Amino acid sequence: LEAGEYDVGPVEVVVGGLQLLTESVRLSVRDAPLRKDEKLWLENGFTPSTAPECQGVIYDYRLVSEYPIQQSPTWDVDDFSGLRAPRDGDRPQRVTTREVAGDELQVIERWIPFVVMGAQDRDYRGPLAQVVVQSDVDKRRETRLLIGKSTSLQVKPLPPSETEFSGLVGEFLVRTQLDRVKVRAGESILWRVQIEGNGTLESFELPNLPEGLPVQVYDGAVTANASIIDGRYVSKVDIERTIVPIEQGKIQLPDLILRSFSPAVQDYVDHRLSFPDLEVTPGAVGSGEAVSFAPTVGPVELLPTPDPLRPLRSPMRIHRSWLMVNWPWL
């Protein structure tokens, strides 16, 4: 039976032709007491245990054993309602040893990254582990069942922000650079923004340059990854954009402000993205479109405007091969 309350009966009994009816009985079933063992236990908890909403937290749980572990334990953990697994980030497991009072203990540790959703305190049950160990008495294999302590997570709401908030919650280092500052009009400049920190990057939005500047900005590659290193959540993102000046002369781009919330100082922190002055010489710019996105370009030949009444054909030739016999229109 599982733990709970059960009603047994009533039961009909016939004695000497006489039918008797017993009363029902309430049966209470409790969980079997776990054997307390100072050589085998669980440890678990959140890091940090108090966090603002939208911050990343790590739930770590570990089995510590003085007995030799015969096989990896099986785990059953809470579903952690109100927390969401981030898009990036793994769930690593590490097997190490720990020395306590001259005894060497085996440690099997696991981590789960989460993002806190909503400003509400939460309580979660402890993990359940089933493990097979070798007894130190008769060296026999024994199956042990362990239950960890329940844990709480305190969540605070984010304060209102007076300016635009990027969505970053955590401690971050922001770097920005241009691959060059002297170009011809119509040539491209690679703009890179690199962010590294201990918070998730999913809701992050890079601020845009204001409209009306004599440049065009094009989205480029975005590379993001995250992992747990020594129990710490580390996230990185590398964002590339292309800036194309469309006017000659000196161009001054305004600073951009990237606002994040720092749990360490319990306030918003502004990261300033500054640009050096651009020196733009005359180039092949017609309607303001970029000539090239390559880091460097050679002389540009302007083609004549095609007659709108005649189809535009390319001088490119395609050499046929035996693979093209089924496509005679090429």
What does this structure look like?
The chain has 330 residues and is mainly β. Helices cover 0% and strands 50% of the residues. Strands 5, 7, 9, 10 and 11 form a 5-stranded antiparallel β-sheet that branches. A 4-stranded antiparallel β-sheet has the order 17-19-21-20, with no helix packed on it. A hairpin with a 2-residue loop joins strand 2 (12-15) and strand 3. The relative contact order is 0.14. Mean pLDDT is 82; it is low at 294-330.
Indicate the proportion of strand residues. over 45%
Major sheet attributes: 5 strands, antiparallel
Counting copies of identical and different chains, the oligomeric state is single chain
Q: How does the overall form come out from the CA principal axes?
A: elongated
**Radius of gyration, rounded?**
33 Å
What is the chain-wise order of helices and strands? EEEEEEEEEEEEEEEEEEEEEEEEE
What value does the average pLDDT take?
82
Question: Approximately how much helix is present in the residues?
Answer: under 10%
- Give unreliable regions as ranges: 294-330
Count of alpha and pi helical runs? 0
**End-to-end separation:** 75 Å
Features:
about 325 residues; single chain; 25 strands; five-stranded antiparallel beta sheet
Task: Describe the structure in brief.
This protein is mostly beta strands. The protein has no helices and 25 strands. It has strands at residues 4-8, 12-15, 18-21, 25-29, 40-47, 50-52, 56-65, 69-76, 83-84, 93-100, 103-116, 122-124, 128-134, 141-147, 151-156, 168-169, 172-178, 182-184, 189-197, 215-229, 232-245, 249-251, 256-262, 267-273, 278-281.
